[in-house]
Structures are given as C-alpha cells and as structure tokens.
Amino acid sequence: MEEFYSGFAQRARDLAEKADPFTKRRLLDLAQRYDLKSRPGSPGVRSLPPPRATPPTVLFSGAGEV
Fold it and tell me: What is the mean pLDDT of residues 7-15?
C-alpha cells in the first residue's frame, strides 16, 4: 500500500511542474498528503479498529413479527 500512495505523490509532483501557480500549490499539498500515507505508522493513515471480543448486541430481539 505504501508504494501505491508514493506513486500517486510522484504523479502529483510531476503534474505540478506544468501547472499554473494555484493548481501547482494544490497538487504539491496533495503529494505531501500521499507521502504521509505512504509511511507505515504515520498519523495520516487510518487503521482498522481491533476486532470485537464479543459479538454486537442484538437491537431487536423477539419471538417474531409484530
């Protein structure tokens, strides 16, 4: 997954070289965010929550239809 984001970061930097100043700044910001995601354990990456130890409670339990 790290290579995926670092590849996108490089593409954004490549596009920024040919862009107008406003777009260049936006692309470079985007590249920086992708760089953060490409680093394992970085705060920019959301990790999945740990699996539940117990199953979720049933919201509607009953004998049948209403």
Answer: 94
Asked whether residue 64 is assigned to any structural domain, the reply reads no
CA torsion 16→10→46→50, rounded to 10°?
Answer: 170
Domain that holds residue 17: 1-39
Q: Is residue 31 part of a domain?
A: yes
Q: What is the pLDDT of residues 20-62, one digit of tens each?
A: 999 999 999 999 999 988 876 655 555 556 666 666 666 666 6
Amino acid letter, residue 56: P
Return d(Cα 22, Cα 55) in angstroms, integer.
Answer: 50
Q: Is residue 49 part of a domain?
A: no
